[in-house]
């Protein structure tokens, strides 16, 4: 990118930053931060731990938005200063620095643009991500484990906190299922576009003849619902069982009955958690996941009722939303958005931002 292109870029960046100032509602966010900060400094603030947690989460989210916008302004200022210095001195180092600043600025602008689409009721919540192997035998259970690793690496790269709550290992390779709790800014809003059936096509390492094998895994993403949200679960509606945690092949993970299985009697929904060392912590984690799944069930019932009344059947995120092809060619393609990447290894190592950004834009276009 030459100097003329970089200077032209700064003009475009100025316009995009001004648009983001309006669409993000920066003045309103600043006002919200002031209100929440004042509330958090009140002497009665910690009297209600649940309310304190809710306010603290909202304050952290609002501050995060302001910090990202401030970083955007700083990068633009640094880019302009770098170009001015480059104009005065013929320096290859300054030119490379300007190109790097422009790249970082463009990436952050794209990130903030995506956040403007995430205005749903639960988009800024944490997420509960469940992966289940489908048809395909050992290839499917191996694929489910590949997806679990992919999402954990994506979360690590994005600065999201991911905690594996429960894993059910397969008798052969891989896993039957896994439940991951993800927290961080817009965790649900971003990961929700991963909801659906994923397909893997490759030369099977489990087939002696080395034939091409197609296998499937399902990914379910629901918002993480805290006790402050409007989902009440009476103790009389749940059954709690405890058992000993175990790993692959039944190998003992700990020697106490700390793992917890919570069954919601009216719906039959079962949630297990064995990640924490104490029974109480595992129960609390399981209840959080149960609350999230009950909310999702409620939303699905409401959507089904609306579709029945209107008689309208809309295209769903549904089955086989993405294909991961490792043979005879290399490509990962999202069948809803058309977005594709010819480097499956990179995608399966957590490089999902392109797919998630495309998915968020696609979802927004379906609503408009």
Binned, the helix content reads 40-55%
Q: Please write the string of helix (H) and strand (E) elements.
A: HHHHEHEEHEEEEEHEEEHH
Shape assignment: globular
Number of domains: 3
Query: Uncertain spans, ≥5 residues at pLDDT below 50?
Result: 306-318
CATH class of the largest domain: Alpha Beta
Number of strands: 11
Rounded average pLDDT: 85
Give the structural class. Answer: alpha+beta
Which value, in Å, is the CA radius of gyration?
24 Å
Termini separation comes to 36 Å
**Main beta sheet: strand number and arrangement?**
8 strands, mixed
Number of helices: 9
By CATH, the architecture of the largest domain is named 2-Layer Sandwich
Strand order of the largest sheet: 2-3-1-5-4-9-10-11
Would you write up a description of this structure?
This protein has 368 residues and is of the alpha+beta class. The protein has nine helices and eleven strands. The protein folds into three domains: 115 residues, Methane Monooxygenase Hydroxylase, Chain G, domain 1; 153 residues, Alpha-Beta Plaits; 76 residues, Double Stranded RNA Binding Domain, CATH 3.30.160. An eight-stranded mixed beta sheet has the order 2-3-1-5-4-9-10-11, with helices on both faces. Strands 6-7-8 form a three-stranded antiparallel beta sheet, with helices on one face. Strand 7 and strand 8 form a beta hairpin. The radius of gyration is 24 Å and the shape is globular.
Topology (elements, then pairings):
Elements: H1 3-24, H2 26-40, H3 49-88, H4 92-117, E1 127-133, H5 137-158, E2 161-169, E3 175-183, H6 187-191, E4 196-203, E5 212-223, E6 238-243, E7 259-264, E8 269-273, H7 279-310, E9 322-325, E10 331-334, E11 340-341, H8 344-348, H9 353-367
Parallel strand pairs: 4-9
Antiparallel strand pairs: 1-3, 1-5, 2-3, 4-5, 6-7, 7-8, 9-10, 10-11
Helix pairs in contact: 1-3, 1-4, 2-3, 3-4
């Amino acid at each position: 990118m030459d100097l003329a292109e970089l200077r032209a870029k700064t003009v475009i960046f100025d316009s995009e930053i001004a648009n983001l100032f309006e669409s993000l509602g920066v003045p309103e966010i600043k006002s919200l931060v002031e209100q929440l900060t004042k509330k958090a400094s009140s002497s009665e603030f910690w009297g209600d731990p649940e309310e304190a947690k809710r306010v603290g989460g909202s304050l952290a989210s609002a501050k995060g938005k302001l910090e990202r916008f401030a970083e955007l302004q700083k990068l633009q200022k640094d880019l302009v200063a770098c170009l001015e210095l480059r104009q005065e001195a013929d320096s290859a180092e300054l030119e490379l620095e300007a190109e790097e600043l422009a790249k970082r600025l463009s990436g952050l602008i794209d990130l903030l643009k995506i956040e403007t689409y995430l205005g749903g009721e639960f988009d800024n919540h944490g997420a509960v991500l469940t992966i289940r192997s489908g048809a395909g035998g050992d290839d499917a259970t191996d694929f489910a484990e590949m997806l679990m690793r992919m999402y954990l690496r994506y979360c690590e790269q994005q600065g999201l906190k991911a905690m594996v709550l429960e894993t059910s290992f397969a008798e052969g390779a891989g896993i039957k299922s896994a439940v991951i709790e993800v927290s961080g800014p817009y965790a649900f809003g971003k990961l929700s576009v991963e909801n659906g059936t994923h397909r893997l096509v490759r030369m099977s390492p489990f087939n002696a003849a080395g034939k091409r094998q197609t296998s499937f895994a399902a990914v379910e993403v629901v918002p993480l619902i805290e006790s402050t949200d409007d989902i009440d679960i009476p103790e009389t509606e749940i059954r709690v069982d405890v058992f000993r945690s175990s790993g692959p092949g039944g190998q003992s993970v700990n020697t106490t009955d700390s793992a917890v299985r919570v069954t919601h009697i009216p719906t039959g929904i079962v949630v297990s958690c064995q990640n924490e060392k104490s029974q109480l912590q595992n129960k609390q984690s399981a209840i959080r996941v149960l609350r999230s799944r009950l909310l999702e069930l409620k939303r699905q019932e409401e959507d089904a009722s609306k579709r029945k009344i209107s008689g309208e059947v809309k295209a769903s995120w549904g089955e086989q939303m993405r294909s991961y092809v490792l043979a005879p060619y290399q490509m990962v393609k999202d069948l809803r958005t058309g977005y594709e990447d010819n480097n499956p290894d990179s995608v399966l190592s957590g490089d999902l931002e392109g797919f998630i950004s495309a998915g968020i834009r696609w979802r927004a276009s379906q609503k408009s």
